[in-house]
């Protein structure tokens, strides 16, 4: 399936490995995705059929709080919003699905902000 040995195929390979493990755990997941301009986060039910909470830098509320939507500060704001929305819906214990992205930079900042505002993982 992944023949090329480049950044994208490596990330997708890591994502598959992570998701396979999380499906076996049957846990509620915090799924993130990042592009060069935006950060996206979703809380997904164990069966992957229901999205419990969503936050991204595309939202007016978040994009007005930050100057640029593709940096660590914006990732922290997304982490804060996703955590507050999840706790409001009664979800506090989750598993972190980083979608194959390395746990560094914006991904780390989002995770730390989510933990700070009430999510446990």
From TrEMBL:
GO molecular function terms noted in the UniProt entry: 5S rRNA binding; structural constituent of ribosome
One Gene Ontology term from the biological process aspect of the record: translation
CDD domains referenced in this protein's UniProt entry, alphabetically: Ribosomal_L18_L5e
Signal peptide: none
UniProt cross-references to HAMAP family, sorted A to Z: Ribosomal_uL18_B (MF_01337_B)
Function: This is one of the proteins that bind and probably mediate the attachment of the 5S RNA into the large ribosomal subunit, where it forms part of the central protuberance.
Protein name: Large ribosomal subunit protein uL18
């Amino acid at each position: 399936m992944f023949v090329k040995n480049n950044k994208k195929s490596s990330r997708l390979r890591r994502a598959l490995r992570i998701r396979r493990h999380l499906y076996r755990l049957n846990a509620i997941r915090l799924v993130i995705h990042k592009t060069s301009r935006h950060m996206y986060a979703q809380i997904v039910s164990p069966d992957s059929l229901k999205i419990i909470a969503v936050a991204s830098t595309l939202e007016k509320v978040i994009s007005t709080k930050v100057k640029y939507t593709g940096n660590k500060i914006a990732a922290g704001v997304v982490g804060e919003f996703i955590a507050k929305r999840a706790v409001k819906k009664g979800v506090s214990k989750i598993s972190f699905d980083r979608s194959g992205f390395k746990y560094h930079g914006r991904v780390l900042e989002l995770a730390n902000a989510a933990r700070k505002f009430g999510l446990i993982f």
